[in-house]
Amino acid sequence: MRKIIASLFISLDGVVEAPDQWHFPYFNDEMGAAVDATFSATDTLLLGRKTYDSFAGAWPEREAAGGEDADFAKKLGDARKIVVSRQELSFTWRNTEQLKGEVVDAVTALKAEPGKDIAMSGSVSVVRQLLAHGLLDELHLLVHPIAVRKGMRLFDEGETTMPLRLLSSKTFSTGVLHLVYALAEATGDATYDDAKAHLPQGDE
Length: 204
Description:
Layout: E1 4-11, H1 29-40, E2 42-48, H2 49-56, H3 59-65, H4 70-78, E3 80-84, E4 96-98, H5 103-112, E5 117-121, H6 124-132, E6 138-144, E7 164-171, E8 177-183, H7 192-195
Parallel strand pairs: 1-5, 1-6, 2-3, 2-5, 3-4
Antiparallel strand pairs: 6-8, 7-8
Helix pairs in contact: 3-4
């Protein structure tokens, strides 16, 4: 079964919207290596329509320009790209198709196909759907040491909690934290009475 790995730039206060307006001062070789490692382990990109439009409006031109980011642009162009949208779409960027059918059923079938893992970038509404249905295997958060204070947060309001399990963590020289999470089992009930036994005890 293929894994779905979602990577997001996120601020300290949970904002994931418009990272191009606040994250570039923190982008260094460490972050570039982390992003490249995720994409190198995958052969398919699963994207929401807005993220796809942003990518398709930039990366083909960067590949054609032959600049220092052309190799990464080619990697994105060569990957299979699947776009989630309720509207019927047409595409000009190579290797792009639209996800057919209901998202949960279609993504479940996609995970069962042969191939390498599936990457996501941005596409917050799709990430939320997959988390809610237990279809997202790894959540890679690049937590920036900045409070953006406005914009869409990763997690919206809901009736239930969503426990996560930390798989790995790394601190970059910029202060960015690279945190990798997976969904976890429910934590169960506990109260202050359960927790107080772990408080420091006074000197005897």
